[in-house]
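Table S2 (text version). Query chain:
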Amino acid sequence: MTQKDKHTILSLRGKGLTCTQIADRLEFAVNTVKSVCRREAEKKKRCRNCHRLLKPNSGGRPKSFCCDECRILWWKKHPEQVNRKAFYLLTCKNCGQDFESYGHKERKYCCHRCYINCRFPDPETKDDKT
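Corresponding structure-token output:
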């Protein structure tokens, strides 16, 4: 396939033709047309946060963000899209309140304050047994 063929496929796709219509018109296999379109789309992929052009990835999972800063910012703005499944309902060892823990079913305390209060009790509140 020549560069001219690829350019023709992309221009027809840009005009709204389906891959099947393009394949029939140019007498290529449908999968060949799909591959050309997919490869071109990967070259023009942009960051989900700042919309900068992403560098093509050499194998593996395709990138969605240009850097860690953009990834963190985008997920903070879109918490509803986080797919979390490992929630555990636990009871705090210090205050006795129920709390949800994500990804850690061995957790004992609902917060840092309860952890500190349980591990290092205030000596003034202890009962004197002397």
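Notes on Table S2: Residues 52 and 111 are 39 Å apart (CA to CA). Helices lie at 3-14, 19-26, 30-43, 68-77, 112-119.
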